[in-house]
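Data card: per-record layout.
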Amino acid sequence: AAAFIRQGEKCNSNHKYVVNLCLPLCIFYTGLEHVGIFRIGGSANKIKELRQKYNRGEKVDLINDGDVDSVASLLKLFLKELPVAVFPDNVCSGLLKTFQGTERAPSKLLELLSCLPEAHQNLLRFLSAFLLKVATYSAVNFMTLENLAIVFGPKNESLLSRKRSN
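The structure for this 166-residue chain is written out next.
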């Protein structure tokens, strides 16, 4: 698979298209009110098919060819396969210390986030806005900020922060 984020490089156009346009459009049109979005896995065959199309550079119509759970799973898969976590170890440990401490200094948070490469910052902005939108429907989809943090948060080998072998 083409790299989504590499240290100091821009996003691959196919993956950038997936994250910045297709996935949120599909999920916005049909999925914000979908119960358990991001907690219920999609069809393995559908995810594989969509992923292969993206990797081959083919046009993918997620609205008609995907379903909410498979599209949400595809987003999680792309995040999981990033060659460098959105929150590298040094930033993740600093974030956890900041949030676990008694003083939650916004300036410290901004300092840590400003250390991220531009591609990571852009992805984080997108995900933050997108997941906040998902959480606004939590009365229907049951995905509160707390539940989304379990799926995406920077703890316990999550999608945004984990030990990398490379």
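Known properties of this structure: Residues 1-14 have pLDDT under 50 and may be disordered. Residues 136 and 144 are 8 Å apart (CA to CA).

See the next section for split statistics.
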